[in-house]
Amino acid sequence: MKIGINFSILILALTLASCASKKEASSAAAKDKVVYRTLTENERMEVDFLFFNAQKEKLIGNFGVAENLFLEIIKRDPGNALPYYEVGRTAIARQQFDRALEYSGKAAQMEPKNEWYLRLRIDLLRQTGRLEEAIPVLRQLVLLVEDQEGVLFELASVQADAKLYNDAIKTFNQIEVRTGPSPELADQKRQLWVKLGKPDKGLDEIRKLVDLYPKDTEFKLYLGQLYFEKGDYDNARKQFDEALAIDPENGKILLALADVYRAQKNTDKAFTYLQAAFTKPELDVDLKIQVLLTLFAEMEKNPAIKAQALALGQEATRLHPEEPKTWAMYADLLYHSGNTAEARIAYKQAISADKGNQKFTVWQQYLLSLLDVQDFESLSPEADKAVELFPNQALPYFLSGLAKNQLKDYSAAVSVLRSGVFYVSGNRELEASFYSSLGDAYNELGNFEESDESYAKTLKIQPHNALVLNNWSYYLSLRKTKLDQAEEMIKKAVKIEPKNPSYLDTYAWVMYQQGKFKEALEWMELALATAGEDKATLYEHYGDILFRLGQEVKAIEFWQKAKAAGMKSDFIDRKIAEGKLYE
């Protein structure tokens, strides 16, 4: 698309060129004793035309062509500072900074009272690291502009960057004479004194402010914080106490005092001030969250802090019930304190308060809290909501599938798990969990080929996943297929967890299906020896093995034990009633 030239800009530039041609010549003559001849009317028109074309080329990005035209103007009108300035600018566009310095310097020399020529010179000197050369030019600029304080600030900044810290302090003092004391100036000087290795002089700058404005709590608070940072807790507390006497409702001061007492290991006193601070609705919520995060990090090492953190978290939610971040923080505190039930409620509150701006991290913790209490009835629909809100996040799909497996809704589990595994990225453990759950669901649906394939994918990612090794082995034994593979897998699982009664039971059952009844008996006895109270399945399997070994009476005895322990298998009642083995 063709872009039209802005002729109003070009006309202005031409006017500047014409004016410069007259004015710069006299200025240069006064300074350098060089008198340039005055251009004739025709010569001035030719120079104006060249300038017009140079500006046009510059506007469309032809900097090389533009520069050559500006150089031609310099040849014809050497007393004109403006083309030197323009060559400097085109050289910057071409990343030719030495050339830019040369020509901008010439322009500033020819017209030392031109603010824009001086500013370009300063910028180039700073950009090329020639800080000390920039300082006299800045001093020159101070005399020309109305905003002298702004230029003085820039001068002090350059002096500081050049490590001329004493000079920078003097410049800040100049500004202070013009504008009066301020926290910004005092702090700038304090930092410079620190760099000079004189931190006490830096503190003096802030003390002056405090003495000058004795009722200003911000200055006292800042001075106290500086004392605190250097470990002078007594002087820090003195400043904070004085500030609190002036403004007893100031939550920041209360937090500062809490920090002092915490540093002095007086945790009870620190907590008293924290409690007081958290009752102040004006205290910024983010500051309260920062405090809670600090306590959260210390809860593991110091259990006594747990109760304090929970109390403060609860107060934050009471005072700021509309803030989702307070509920989320409180929920995290509850969750990591082991109070999963209340954490679940707090996470739900965070989600409810977070209208139109749902955060995945909060939803994630909420869903995990449902999983922790094994509330699969709630987890399934809530995970589905999370899938709708965060369709590119894999975890909600997995948790939805897991819950549906537990609720025996296997077809729905397969559907959501197959959709979600696509979004797993870089998390191999989660990917393995997807395939493991798919294996479980497919097995329950009788789709054994897909089940085996899913388990195989899990073990490819996690070859030492004992749970999957056990489950797949057990399902193969029930199907009486691939029993050699089943034996190989359960051997690995038992090697990983040699005292897991479920794995020992699976090993016994694989032996049983292979007709190795004596070996099966040995493994089942190991399983019974290591099992806890839940032995119903083990008793029934043990009875089956005994029956195969010809010990029918003892077999019935163990089937009865299985029944008494709550076993509800398809054949347990018939086995007991008829004294026969049914499979």
Summarize the structure.
This protein has 583 residues and is mostly helical.
CATH fold title of the domain at 1-145 = Serine Threonine Protein Phosphatase 5, Tetratricopeptide repeat
CATH superfamily of the domain at 1-145: Tetratricopeptide repeat domain
* Oligomer designation: single chain
Beta-strand fraction estimate: under 5%
Structural class, from helix and strand content? mainly alpha
Low-confidence stretches: 1-33
Distance between the termini: 82 Å
User: How large, in whole angstroms, is the Cα Rg?
Assistant: 41 Å
Helix content: over 70%
How many strand units? Answer: 0
Overall geometric form: elongated
Major pleated sheet: none
| CATH architectural label of the domain at 1-145 | Alpha Horseshoe
What does this structure look like?
With 583 residues, the chain is mainly alpha-helical. The chain has a domain at 1-145: Serine Threonine Protein Phosphatase 5, Tetratricopeptide repeat. The protein has 32 helices and no strands. The protein has helices at 7-32, 41-59, 63-76, 81-93, 97-110, 115-127, 131-142, 148-161, 165-179, 183-195, 199-212, 217-229, 233-246, 251-263, 267-278, 285-298, 304-319, 324-336, 340-353, 360-372, 376-389, 394-406, 410-420, 428-444, 448-461, 466-479, 483-496, 501-513, 517-530, 536-548, 552-564, 572-578. Helix 22 packs antiparallel against helix 23. The N and C termini lie far apart (82 Å). The relative contact order is 0.02. Mean pLDDT is 90; it is low at 1-33.
